[in-house]
């Protein structure tokens, strides 16, 4: 089927999208060899260099693969998902399981590595969480809770860990808002217990890694149990 000429600029993006649409639509099934660059350039109304860049983009997305001396072949009909997209599609319970694994060790590291600046940030975040705890609005409470956990992550002084937690945060926020909407956990000292969070900050202050890890493990597992019940 002729592809038809493209509108001017940005030609590479348009060419890549047109080829992607053809692949997704079944014009070129998996295993099929694509037409040569000259043929594609003629059908798309662009230069060969534009086609070459478009094919490179499709290869980067995991849709096609160039085989030395043989040409370019379709290897998938859907592009590879990037990490943020994968997280957005995941259930909050699945993300929470990974969060629990990471945060236990993060709390232990925070107790070992915290600085005076970290303690100030933790105290500020704990106070903000306590204040939000007594409010009527759900979202400020969730945001304050996540901010406290983010301060714990920061006190671990591991930038990779901090980046991972930042990727999880949007999914966690949405899931926790849904959870609190269904069951107001602020009325009990369990999953989001004020005492547990105060004890966590104190364990980090006194540099007790074992206590910090155990406190956050219990707190997060209680929340995870509530999330799993709502699956």
Low-confidence stretches: 188-192
Helix content: 55-70%
Radius of gyration: 25 Å
CATH H-level superfamily of the largest domain: GntR ligand-binding domain-like
Major sheet: arrangement of strands: 1-2
Average pLDDT for all residues: 84
Report the sheet with the most strands, covering strand number, pairing sense and barrel closure. Answer: 2 strands, antiparallel
Organism: Actinomadura darangshiensis
Keywords: DNA-binding, Transcription, Transcription regulation
Pfam families: FCD, GntR
InterPro entries: GntR_C, TF_FadR/GntR_C, Tscrpt_reg_HTH_GntR, WH-like_DNA-bd_sf, WH_DNA-bd_sf
Give an overview of the whole structure.
Helix content is 68%, strand content 3%. The protein is built from ten helices and two strands. It has 231 residues and is mainly alpha-helical. A hairpin with a 3-residue loop joins strand 1 and strand 2. The chain has helices spanning 11-24, 37-44, 48-60, 83-89, 92-113, 116-133, 138-155, 159-182, 194-205, 209-229, and strands at residues 64-67, 71-74. The chain has a two-stranded antiparallel sheet. The chain has two domains: 11-74, Arc Repressor Mutant, subunit A (Orthogonal Bundle), CATH 1.10.10.10; 83-229, Four Helix Bundle (Hemerythrin (Met), subunit A) (Up-down Bundle), CATH 1.20.120. Residues 9-77 form the HTH gntR-type domain. This is FadR family transcriptional regulator.
Features:
Arc Repressor Mutant, subunit A, 10 helices, mainly alpha, 231 residues, elongated
């Amino acid at each position: 089927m002729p592809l038809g000429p493209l509108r001017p600029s940005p030609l590479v993006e348009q060419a890549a999208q047109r080829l992607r649409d053809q692949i997704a639509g079944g014009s070129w099934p998996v295993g099929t060899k694509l037409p040569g660059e000259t043929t594609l350039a003629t059908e798309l109304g662009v230069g060969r260099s534009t086609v070459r860049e478009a094919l490179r983009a499709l290869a980067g997305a995991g849709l096609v693969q160039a085989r030395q001396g043989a040409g370019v072949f379709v290897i998938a009909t859907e592009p590879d998902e990037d990490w943020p997209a994968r997280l957005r599609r995941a259930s909050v319970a699945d993300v929470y399981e990974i969060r629990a694994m990471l945060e236990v060790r993060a709390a232990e590291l925070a107790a070992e590595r915290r600085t005076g600046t970290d303690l100030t940030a933790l105290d500020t975040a704990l106070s903000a969480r306590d204040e939000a705890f007594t409010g009527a609005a759900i979202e400020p409470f969730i945001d304050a809770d996540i901010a406290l956990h983010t301060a714990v992550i920061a006190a671990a002084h591991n930038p990779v860990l901090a980046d991972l937690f930042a990727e999880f945060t949007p999914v966690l926020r949405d899931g926790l808002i849904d959870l609190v909407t269904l069951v107001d956990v602020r009325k009990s000292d369990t999953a989001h217990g004020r005492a547990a969070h105060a004890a966590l900050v104190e364990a980090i202050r006194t540099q007790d890694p074992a206590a910090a890890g155990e406190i956050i493990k219990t707190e997060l597992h209680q929340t995870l149990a509530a999330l799993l019940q709502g699956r």
